[in-house]
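Ticket opened by: R.M.
Priority: normal
Category: complex prediction / small molecule

The reporter submitted a protein together with iron/sulfur cluster and asked that the result be attached to this ticket for the collaborator who will pick it up next week. Submitted input follows.
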Amino acid sequence: MEVWQQLIRDSVHTVDELVDRFNLDRQVAEDLDEHFQARINPYYLSLIRYPGDPIWKQCIPDIDELEDFDGIDDPLNEDDMSPVPNITHRYPDRCLFLVTSQCGMYCRFCTRKRKVGDYEKISMKSLESAFNYIENNPGIRDVILSGGDPLMLTDVMLEKVLKRLREIPHVEIIRLGTKMPCVLPQRITKSLCEVIKKYHPIYINTHFNHPWEITEESTKACSMLMDAGCPVNNQAVLMKGVNDDPDVMKELMQKLLYIRVRPYYLFMADQTKGTKHFRTSIEKGLEIMEKLRGHTSGMAVPHFVIDAPGGGGKIPLLPKYVLHQDEDRIIMRNYKNEVYTYKNIKDEVDSAKIKIEVTKENDKSLGEPKHLRTQVETVNQC
Ligand code: SF4
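Result attached by the on-call engineer:
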């Protein structure tokens, strides 16, 4: 048995353990277990500094999960967009392929908690029909392996999946959506990297939410994946009591960049049943973005998005930087609230002949703060 498998085996997961170790009321622990089981491996458990801290909140079951009556089981409508079991096909050229129900840790905020941890709901028996679906849909050029966590597969099983996908000529990109570098970095072994290397291009989308998760072990795991040729991107979720603070978020993004992981997305928490206590206001998210943009490298600024309820896809949100726009000019403010005007030109038939003229000036005529308020601006990129 490999070290990471032993750590999974040594995880806290029974009602008795939850009662003994975290002082949960037995009935509450039983109800929580029924609702969404726990798995807290010894590595992630060791990151907790005090009860109720940002690491604790992400992994220890909480009575608040039972008191969310407005949440939705499948907030992104993944099941209705599933042409065959284990596949969600929302965008024309890419699809989500669920290859396991298991994870290195069960996150209390999980969007897919209706399925995760249940072998019946993400069944290995359905892999064949999923492969057939991808083979028969030549428009799919990008496959995102998820679950559960695809790195819960053994190296042998993962290689079978990767090899089969690589035999499909139209599949250009394979992505692994994995939280392992963060929650169980011991999973990133030399032999795993040897497998991955054979099936490039493979991209890793991982999931760090708090700077305390960036440790010697997780840094090494990310480095090994990058040294094996995988770009590693991070998808964080904004959560109350975890990272809803501009300084915490800035530290997270800067640390990610320092370990060469690219901050990719910052998600508003989904409206998943049992997770309402994690949700923050949209204004809080915009405030955080306002305090990142310009105050640190653009490489450390993720796209702030809402994954639209009902399956609308990711929609980016921005603080209001455009103060006025007409056919002659656009008036904008920068991160210091200084106002600038950029002169527009009309589109010509031959766009190659378009000349761009930039004028930078402070526009005193606009007045002060009422123009500088932060507002929501949305653009659908789907
Ligand atoms: S690792 Fe991902 S799929 Fe698994 S419980 Fe956490 S958020 Fe859900």
